Every structure is written in C-alpha cells, then in structure tokens.
From TrEMBL, chains A, B:
Protein name in the entry: Acyl-coenzyme A oxidase
Binding sites annotated in the UniProt record for FAD: G149
Entry keyword Oxidoreductase: yes
Organism: Athene cunicularia (Burrowing owl)
Native organism taxonomy: Eukaryota, Metazoa, Chordata, Craniata, Vertebrata
GO biological process assignments: fatty acid beta-oxidation using acyl-CoA oxidase; lipid homeostasis
Residues covered by the Acyl-CoA oxidase C-alpha1 domain: 253-417
One term of GO molecular function: FAD binding
Catalytic activity: hexadecanedioyl-CoA + O2 = (2E)-hexadecenedioyl-CoA + H2O2; (2S)-pristanoyl-CoA + O2 = (2E)-pristenoyl-CoA + H2O2; tetracosanoyl-CoA + O2 = (2E)-tetracosenoyl-CoA + H2O2; a 2,3-saturated acyl-CoA + O2 = a (2E)-enoyl-CoA + H2O2
Gene Ontology cellular component annotations, sorted alphabetically: peroxisome
Family: Belongs to the acyl-CoA oxidase family.
Pathway assignment: Lipid metabolism; peroxisomal fatty acid beta-oxidation
Length: 648, 648
C-alpha cells in the first residue's frame, strides 16, 4: 500500500492466521490510524520497542521467580520507567491523552511495575510543605492500614489519612499527612513505625503491598498535604477551598481519577484476553462436517457467541475510556484554573457518577471475559505461559479496590435519583449523560417496535430500549424507596432494601446506555471513512444488543417488549452479528494487540503457529525433560499399588 | 445436649460468630447427622485428623514453595494416602458412597494429592495381560499427547489410546495400551520415548502434568487393555462385548465416572468458598445506621443476595451429587454382573446425559461462586492466604477437562431431542429424569399462577416453571433444527446453528430442573425432622427461584409468565428467602465446613476472630518485617522523582 501508515505498522508474519486476515472487510492499519492517530501509534511503538530492547524487561520462559525476586525486578523496572521519561512536558500539555496511553502500554507488559510507577507519581504529585509538629498513633491492630501499595518492602514515605485535632482541641476532620516510615539509606523502619509485607496475593505480586502502624510518631508540621486544608503556624485551620461543596467536589474528582484509571486498566485487560483467545480460536481446529476435515473453532456458533460480544465490548469501552479521560481533563482544568462556577461543581458530580459505574462495568466485563477466554482456549488456556490466568488474577482487584463495585454503583444510583425532583423542568448535565431524563414521561410510553431481525441490526434499537430501561428503573427505584420510607423504615434501611433489582440495576443500565450512546454516536458519524464504518456499526450493534439481552426480562416485565418475537429478534440479531463479525475478528484484534513480546502468550502470537509456539516455549523450560530432583525418593517410596489392586 | 452426636461433632470455640450461631433456627449437629449419617461423620473425622496429625501435611504459612518442591511434597503425600488405606474392602462393599466422601475429604485439604491419588487408582484399575507385540508411533508434534496427569515428572507407565491396526492390515478402531515410559529405578525415559513436564498451570501445580511422544516403541501384546476388545495370540480382534451398542454404553459409563467425580469436586469447592465468605461476612462490619454503629456486611441485602443463593446451591448440589453417585453405582453393578437388559443400556444413556450436564452446571456454579466469594471478601479475599484464589484456580479446569462444558451440553440436548419421537406414547427412563416429557403437550399449556410473593416461597413454584421451560425449549430446539434442515443445511451445520438460545439452554434447564426435582422431593419428604424441614425447604425454594430467575426472559417470551407482577413475585421471594436465611447462614456453613486445619483460611476460621487470625498469619511470614534482600540496590537506584516533579 502507498499509505503512510505502512511504515508505522509493520505487516504480520505469514502463517495460518492469513486465511482470516484475507477475509477481513477492512484494512486493520487504516483502522488503527483512525482510532489512535499516528502520533499515539508512534508513542506506542516507542514504548513497546524500548521495553523489548531492554535486558531488564526480558522474559524468562519456564523460569520460576520467587516473590522477593519478582518484587526486586519490579522495583528495578519501575525505576527504569522513570529514566525512560517517555513523554516530554510539551507533549503532555499538547495531548494529555498521551499519559493515558503510556500507562496502558506499560501495563500491557505487566501491571506490577505499571502500578508501582503510578503510585510513585501519585505520591510525588501530592507533596507540600509547612512548619509545626504533629504526633500520629494507630489505636489498635484493627485500625492498622493494610494494603498500601509499595509499602511492603520499599516505600520510605507514606501519605497517611488521619483524624486531625488542632492544639485547641478542635476536630478538623480527615486529613492527609506525609509520614516517613523507613530510613532512606538503610530501609529500616523509623522508630515507632511497624511496617511490613502483607504476603502473597492472588495476582500483582510484583507489587509489594504493606501494612503500617504508628506509635507516637512525630510528623513535621510541613507534612500536612494542602489539597483542601492546612493548619497555620499558629495551629489554626485554614482551607483555600472555602466552600464545603467545592471542597467535596475537589475530593470527588480525586477519587474519579483513580476510578478512571481502573476503568482503562480493565479495558486493557479485555484487549489482552481477546487478542489471545481470538487468535487461538482462528487456528485451533476441532471436529468438522466430515471425519477428514477439521474446522477452526471460531467457525462454531457457540465459540462466536462466547467471544465476539466481548470483542465488541472492547471497542465500545476503549472509545468510552478515551471520552471519560477527556471529561476528567476538563474537570481538572477547571480545578487548576480555580473555576468556581456551578458548571464546575456539576462536572464534579457527573464525572463522579460516571466513574463510579464505569469502573464496575468495565472491571466485571474484563473479569468475565478473561474467564470466558481462558475456557474458550481449553487446556491451552489453563497453561500459565499463555497468560490468561495472569490477566484474570491481575484484573481481579479492579473489582474491589478504589471502592467495591457493588458499593460504588450506589453512588451512581444516588446521583440519578437526585434528578427525580427536576424531572418536570428542562435541565441538562455538562456532559449530557442524564439529558435522557428530559423526556422521562414520554420515554416511559415507548415500546419495542422492530418488526424483523434486520430491523435490529443497528445500535439505535438497543439504544432506544436502554433509554426506556433507565427511565423505567429510575421510576421503579424511586417508587420502591418511597414505599420503604412510608412503611416506617429509616433512611438507612430503606436504601438497603432498594438495591437489588432496583438501584443496582439502574446504575448498570445507566452506564451501559451511556457507553452505547457515545459509541453509537461515534460509529454513526458521517466523518468515519466508508471503508471502516460497516464493521464499526456492527460492533456497536452487537455490543448494544448483547448488553441489552441481559435485561430482556425487565423489558418484558415492564411492558416495553411483548410476545415471542421481540426476544427472538434480539437473540437472532446477536447471532447474525457474531456471524458477520467472525471473518473480521482477527483483523479487529490485530488493531489493538500489542507486539508478541508484550502480549507474551504463545497461543496469542501474531504468526498463528499454534503448536510450534507452544512447543517452542515448553522446551525452553530448563527442567522440562529432566527427571525430578527427588527421583531417588520415588524409587524408595513408590505408591504401594498392590494393596489397593488386590482389594478390587 | 444429651444426643449421641455431641461427641462426634465438637462445639466451636466461643467468639464473634456466636451471635449468628445463637440466632440459627436449627441445631447444626442434628443437620450434619441427618445429611451424612454418623458413619460418614466418623470417616470424615478419621481422615481429617489423620492429615492434621501428620507432619507431612503440615501447612507452612508465608512460605513459598517452588513448583518442584510442591510436586515432591504432593508425591510424598499421595504415597502416604495409599499407606493410610482409609477404607477396608468390607467398608467399600457395604457403602460405596464412602469412596466418594474419602476422596472429597482429601480434596478439601488440597486437590493436587487427591487427583494424583485418583489417577494412580484409575491406572491400577485398568490392568490386563496378553501376548503379541505392537509398535507405537507419534506422527508429529501436534499429535503428541499433552496434559497427562502425573506424567510430567514421575509416572513410569501410561495408558495410551492409539489407532489399532492388526497384522492383517485391518483397522480396529481406537484402543488403549499400557506403555512403559520411564525406567522404574532411575526415572529416566525408555528409549524412543520423549516425556516431559508441560510447565506451570493456573492451578493444581502440585500435580505434574506431562506430554509424551513415541518413536517406534515396542509394546508387549499383553499390554492391550481389555475393557471392550482384545487381539488374540494369532493377531485377530475379539471383543467380549459383542454388541456395538453395549460396547458404546460401557464406554459412556467410564466417561460418566470422571464427570461424576468432577461434579462432586466442584460441589466441594462450593463448600470451601462459601464457608470462608459467609463466616467472613458475619463478622466483618462496615458502615451502619448511625456513624457510631457498624453492622456485619451479612446484614446488607446485596451481600445476602450475592452469597446466600450459592449457599442454597451448595445444599441442592450436595444432595444431587450423592444421588448421582448412587445412579452410577447401579450402572456399574449392572456392568459387573454382565447385565444385558435394555434397562442397563438405558441406564448407560441416561447417566451419560445427566453427567454431561451436571459437570457443566456444577463447575460453572463453583467458578462463579468462587469469584463472588472472593469479591464479597474485598481485599481480604484477594490475599492468597485466605485461599479463595486457590479454590478458584483449582476449580477452573473442571470447566474444560473431561469434555469442555459447552461441548458436553450437546450430549445432553442430543439425548433429550432423541425422545421427541416417543412423545405421544407412554415412556419412562430408569432414573425417571425424562418422565416430565410424558406430559409434554399438557405442560406446554401451563402458566405461572402464583398470586403473591408468599405463594412463591415453596420450590414447587420454580419446579413447575422448570417443567414448562424444559418442554418449551425442547419444542423450540426441535423446531429450529427442522427449520435449519429444511433450508438445506447439512446435519453438521444445522446442529451448529441450534446451540445458542436453543439446545444449550435446553440442556442447562433440564439439569437444573433435575437437581431441583430431587432436592424438592428430598426436602418435602415427611421423614425429615420437623426441626430441620423449614430451613431445608427455604434452601430448596431459594435455589429453585434463583436458578429460574436467570431464565425469566424465556418465561415471558414463551408466554408462561406475563405482566409486571410475575417477575416481581419471583424477585421479591428471592430477597425474602435471603433475608430469612441470613440468620441460619453461619450454622448452615458449620454443617459442611471442614476443620480449620483443612479449610486453611484465616478469615474462614470457626472462631470468627477475623483480625487476630489475619495478623497471626501475616506475622508468621518469615520475612514479613524484614527490609528486602535487595535494599542496597534501593539506595543506589531510588526512582529519580525530581525530574517528573519539576515537570508538573
């Protein structure tokens, strides 16, 4: 091709995957350039090749790393990442989205050094300086802080949230302080500090998580972190953010950045898992129409239905993550420029509501996808070398940290419920995500109107259904809450009783609708090249219908759908879209799969040489063909089979 | 109490779990005796205390075991299990169910030695003897056998399935041979054999799985295994099972035993995961009606709804596993006594259809439960020491080995579809599981008739709905298949196009209906003591409604349910049952939880001293409080924070 993107994106090696690559309806390089832009592709290439050329990042197939060694390696890799300094200040200012891409590229290699790196950056970002002296204490074992990243082994300072009492005895609420916990030369704990490692986790073991307890540890006054409030040299409390509401909005924003990152981390895990499972499915053959001919498992309806909706989800969520990051950038820009407007406060609330639901949606989707991909690859998926176990184990904490998913969803439903009182007046939110409620009463009368499968093949159909679903669940949740309160329950009890099937479903439906709305708008934009638009529209429709199908019972229950056909249309449209996308699946994965070195999965390699790749890796194991070191014990201790045998 | 079970089942230590234990509606010891019987409880006690007292089975908290060391330990433990010889021949004959309990008790400690032990037993069971000589070859790398248990490091002989050609050039089909692969004194491979370790897996790493390839290896004629056929001294093929159908039935039976074991293994994983998550939820407090008072997370509707249906599933599936084992025993008894009846053949087919669906149902339920339990325990669930990761990782292969779950479900739907032609004549199957189809036409006219939530609180309601569901999905699948064939598709294509939303859903609905039918009958038996019946009926209703709720869309779609109320009744009944069961949950777990030593999870300990247990374990780690071994590198290589800081 004569396009300039040719040099940016090298061709894949010839091999068994060519069959599907040739069948693709579009050029994967054109798609990559559309989605990321040349600038970002260059950045990715730069990062990926830096890691691949660096001996510190080399893989050791078949080698077992102890946790201590893995932590050491992670520390050294993290340090190297600081040295690489992938982005200049100018680049960040021109395109803050580059930070987002940089972090995810590193994470594709391994989340442990990536998160260690992020944690170091976060601490650095929060530094501040002051005068007086404080004393900090941990009342008991239960109050000890557990899980702090980097603290298990090597952090020298920690940001500690503590109840602040000023010398006049006044309680000033929760504040953060910078506390030294280890000597920076010896790494031994500072007197009065008990600090240690919390032990092995299910995943992310390169990261050392720790615990800390304090016994009468003095903290220099300058170490209070002045995000929202300080204490003056005279021991008086002052806050640069005067308005409690604004202070709250600022705090929400800082929570939102963590949740945005986790949303993106989870979406990246989707990319990794799908790259592996789809390439595997395209070359792994099993059974066939005759005894002689075996066909790729991707040709089976069940395999398509298990994997392709997650592929569509990956595309929709990738787009959503970028848009969310842009929303967050707007919010931070307002903070930095000290915006005091109502709009800035509204943005804080809206972004909080979005992240509090996008994190659960994306982390759960990735967790389920990792499990489905691992099963879809059968025994090969269960081999550690193929990385699906690592992806699942590393993704797992995304479901519970920075707020448990189920608890977070309440933040979003609370936000939505708070709009119920404005339902009769015109209103809009800064990012427009709740504007659907403007037509609340009207939408509640909508019905499912598609008359054929073909009618359902566009994402406008599930999108309309989602709008009804959000309004319906909002009404039901609101009614349920009123009923609970009327029956004399406390606010606490009433809310508790409205979660399952009501508020929880509402928050999930809302975020799915938002993701779909944005992706629908994007894929239907007339500026999308006509060469790419059909496949993007298919992805949008499949994501929408498949997500919606999990709410099908509610659509019937609430009267939006009725009769046997409605459900059948949706189901058949899902299967038809899976079928239409199967020949594009490998190319769709080629668009986002990182280079083989980064993906690090023999069954996910771009050459598709399944068995050669597996055997190559198996035989790399230094002891693969050796008898066990304990072979002499075997001869002395062989199981006494005779006894059992004689019995049977 | 003066009951004789008091001495069998010691009281639990006093502690924070007492609050819930006191609130339970029944005596957990009475329940344990009802479910298992004293004889089995004694067997369990014997096995559990043997393991606890044996230095070879001691736990090493905080210690990291290399894979090689873990495999060695597993081998020694497996060998010790043979020495323990927990069951006498007499005991096995009197109650074959004891084998089942013995295996699961060992598995509760660790699946690796348990499965190694089972594999050794299986090989021993298959021995046979004959004369001529054969030569075995593996054509290429792709044909190499991968995954063979025990073969990675220590197996000396393997059962190999190979295409048998007799000297007259006749192809005789697939046969099994006993092949020596390693020297029994040196553990070095036999010439012509390439045998090795396949590498690390996601779980079950104590078990050494291997691969093997053969190059012109001679096998003594006596090593053909005569389960279904032999070759005579003159090189002629002969089979003791003359009838092809019978031979097929015998082969199906041997597949069924593996799938029955996996069903039981998965059910046991449910017990382990629920024991940990429910005890944790009963003592872990978070938030509360006021700022001062925190309540156990088990009091939250969401937490109840996340966990208690899995608790109900554990009880229903536990009962089902025992009944399935009895079915299998009847089948094997027929084989051993050389039954040639139609009934014996029918049993073979029916048990095959049951296992091919119970294995997917139970392994998936356990996989989802392990994930839900891990998330429900938050960060504590993510700590490796609390074992939920291990349970999930060890359960994982149950979803794909001995037949991938999705593929296996086709066996069951094929069986059900095969009954369509008899639908107009009276028929029954030996275990009665398809007798529901006798009323097929009648049942298709049924409707959901409950008029209130209270109406739905018995498992008869979901059971009736399930009967309709099975008939409806059978009809729809049959229609769909006919349509596909009529449109000119080959049998292969037509079947492929009928899986998702049709045959696959049919097989799942069928097995859920069967599990529920058996559990409903059991819990409604007038012989159940009145002290235990209410809670058992609640479990049956919850399991039935919760499983059914996943098919709610189909109930509406097919016209069984209509209107808003039907779905609401089911949903509200699920929540009400969760609420009613929450005070019984700890006692229900006490019934099946193994002793602390076996459960091996600080947050799952019977004393409920959450923080003491965790800290006790954390501080056992030999290097918990040490600075890292690589501390000097830290001082040389500390991340150059300044550069980034200056930029921001």
């Amino acid at each position: 091709g004569s396009h300039s993107w040719e040099s940016l994106l090298p061709d894949f090696p010839k091999g068994p995957l060519c069959k599907y690559r040739k069948k693709a309806s579009f050029n994967w390089k054109e798609m990559a350039v559309l989605l990321d832009g040349k600038d970002i592709i260059q950045l990715k290439n730069r990062i990926f090749s830096a890691l691949e050329s660096d001996p510190l990042f080399v893989h050791h197939p078949g080698e077992e790393l102890s946790r201590e060694k893995y932590q050491e390696l992670t520390f050294l890799r993290c340090k190297r990442l600081f040295e690489y300094d992938f982005l200049t200040q100018q680049e960040i200012i021109e395109n803050p989205l580059k930070i987002f891409h940089m972090v995810l590229c590193i994470g594709m290699y391994d989340w442990s050094p990536c998160i260690q790196y992020l944690l170091h950056c976060a601490v650095i970002l929060n530094c501040a300086s002051y005068l007086l002296e404080f004393i900090i204490n941990t009342p008991d074992f239960e109050a000890a802080k557990f899980w702090i990243g980097n603290m298990g082994k090597h952090a020298t300072h920690a940001v500690v949230y503590a109840q602040l009492y000023t010398p006049d005895g006044q309680y000033q609420g929760l504040h953060s302080f910078l506390v030294q916990i280890r000597d920076i030369k010896t790494l031994l704990p500072i007197p009065g500090v008990v600090v240690g490692d919390i032990g092995k986790k299910i995943g992310q073991n390169g990261l050392d998580n720790g615990f800390a307890m304090f016994h009468n540890v003095r903290i220099p006054k300058e170490n209070i972190l002045n995000i929202a409030g300080d204490v003056t040299a005279e021991g008086k409390y002052s806050s640069s953010v005067k308005d409690v509401k604004e202070r709250f909005s600022a705090a929400l924003g800082s929570l939102s950045s963590g949740r945005t990152v986790i949303t993106a981390v989870s979406m990246t895990n989707l990319k990794l898992a799908l790259s592996i499972a789809i390439r595997f499915s395209a070359v792994r053959c099993q059974f066939g129409p005759t005894d002689d001919e075996e066909i790729p498992v991707l040709e089976y309806q069940t395999q398509q239905w298990r994997l392709l909706p997650y592929l569509a989800a990956t595309y929709a969520l990738d787009y959503f993550c970028k848009s969310l990051f842009e929303n967050l950038t707007e919010f931070y820009l307002g903070l930095l420029t000290k915006q005091r407007s109502q709009r800035q406060a509204d943005i804080g609330r809206e972004i909080h509501a979005l992240c509090a639901a996008s994190k659960p949606l994306t982390s759960w989707t990735a967790q389920q996808a990792a499990q489905e991909c691992r099963e879809a690859c059968g025994g090969h998926g269960y081999l550690a070398m193929n990385r699906l176990g690592e992806i699942r184990n590393d993704n797992d904490p995304n479901c519970t940290y920075e707020g448990d998913n189920n608890v977070l969803l309440q933040q979003t439903s609370n936000y939505l419920m708070s709009w119920m009182h404005c339902i009769r007046v015109p209103f809009e939110s800064p990012f427009g995500t709740i504007n659907v409620l403007q037509d609340y009463h009207h939408i509640l009368d909508w019905k499912f109107t598609a008359m054929s499968v073909e009618d359902c093949m566009d994402s406008s159909v599930p999108l309309a259904a989602y709008k009804w679903l959000v309004c319906y669940l909002l009404r039901e949740s609101d009614l349920k809450l009123s009923k609970e309160k009327q029956s004399g329950r406390s606010d606490f009890e009433a809310k508790n009783n409205c979660q399952v099937y009501y508020c929880r479903s509402l928050a999930i439906a809302f975020i799915e609708q938002t993701v779909l709305q944005r992706y629908h708008d994007y894929t239907h934009d007339p500026d999308i090249p006509s060469t790419l638009q059909p496949v993007l529209k298919n992805l949008s429709a499949l994501y929408g219908l498949w997500s919606l199908s999990k709410h099908l019972a509610v659509l019937y229950q609430g009267g939006y759908a009725s009769g046997e056909q409605a459900g059948r249309f949706i189901q058949n449209a899902i299967l038809e879209l899976c079928y239409r996308l199967k020949d594009d699946a490998v190319a769709l994965v080629d668009v986002f799969a990182p280079p083989d070195f980064i993906l690090n999965s023999p069954i996910g390699k771009a050459n598709g040489e399944l068995y050669k790749n597996i055997w190559g890796e198996v035989l790399q194991g230094s002891k693969t063909l050796n008898r066990p070191s304990w072979w002499t014990e075997f001869c002395i201790n062989r199981p006494v089979a005779g006894r059992l045998k004689s019995k049977l």
